[in-house]
From TrEMBL:
InterPro entries: DUF4186. It comes from Ruminococcus bovis. It comes from the Bacteria. This is DUF4186 domain-containing protein.
């Protein structure tokens, strides 16, 4: 099993995955609601949009914009069951366990925090 740092390093080598970045409105939203609220949103999105055994619109359930977690899902290959299978070998036809969901949320939050911190460091 790879670590979060190993996963982020692998994703950074993908031209497509590394093309995703948070926009100014995403930073403003994070500043407004805080990282804990973003984490709660990530938990909710993963539980409802990615964890079920059957997802009727799989491959199209994660918007490409509109929330920092959506952007992170695409950047981290956690946007649909197909990408989860390709990047992390997660079986497409089984419900995600609580542990799997937690690992996904931790990866998404690590990516969001890395993006956020790089923006803060640039402004200093």
């Amino acid at each position: 099993m790879q670590t979060i740092d190993e996963a982020l390093e692998k994703l950074s080598k993908s031209k497509f995955r590394s093309s995703f970045h948070l926009k100014e409105k995403d930073f403003e939203y994070i500043n407004k609601v805080g990282m804990e609220k973003i984490r709660q949103h990530a938990k909710d999105f993963i539980k409802t949009r990615l964890a079920p055994k059957y997802i009727p619109n799989d491959g199209k359930q994660t918007p490409m914009k509109g929330h920092p977690v959506f952007i992170a899902q695409h950047a981290c290959g956690c946007c649909c069951r197909g990408c989860l299978n390709k990047w992390y070998r997660v079986n497409k036809s089984t419900e995600l366990t609580e542990t799997q969901q937690e690992k996904i949320v931790n990866l998404l939050m690590a990516w969001i925090e890395k993006e956020y911190n790089s923006k803060i460091n640039i402004q200093k």
